[in-house]
Amino acid sequence: MRCREQVMMCVCVCQIWDTAGQERFRSVTHAYYRDAQALLLLYDVTSRSSFDNTRAWLTDIHEYAQDDVVIMLLGNKTDMSSARVIRREDGEKLAREFGVIFLETSAKTGLNVDQAFITVAR
């Protein structure tokens, strides 16, 4: 997917690769990490395993990506509050541990989706 966003008088072009966190894409993603200027890693706030897997993905990103890459950790599906198992504080703590930006989103309602792209573009 490609998108264009104007941020601070500059037009940013985004090329988005969604690997859905699947293990079969792990070796392919290493190649994309090397050329990326920004990486957004999402986990599902209603899934413990989704959150637990982000640690391995963040470790890979730090190993294979450029030192100046902008990394954002996103807790998604915040619209499903009754099914939530991962607290916001847990996401914030993991983000601090890896030195990355943190935000919670809802792809369903659009909460903070634009903000995530604007933040990494800046």
TrEMBL record:
GO terms for cellular component: membrane. PROSITE patterns: RAB (PS51419), RAS (PS51421). It is found in: Membrane. It is a lipid-anchor. It is an enzyme of class 3 (hydrolase). Keywords: GTP-binding, Lipoprotein, Nucleotide-binding, Prenylation. NCBIfam families: small_GTP (TIGR00231). Belongs to the small GTPase superfamily. Rab family. This is small monomeric GTPase. It comes from Triplophysa rosa.
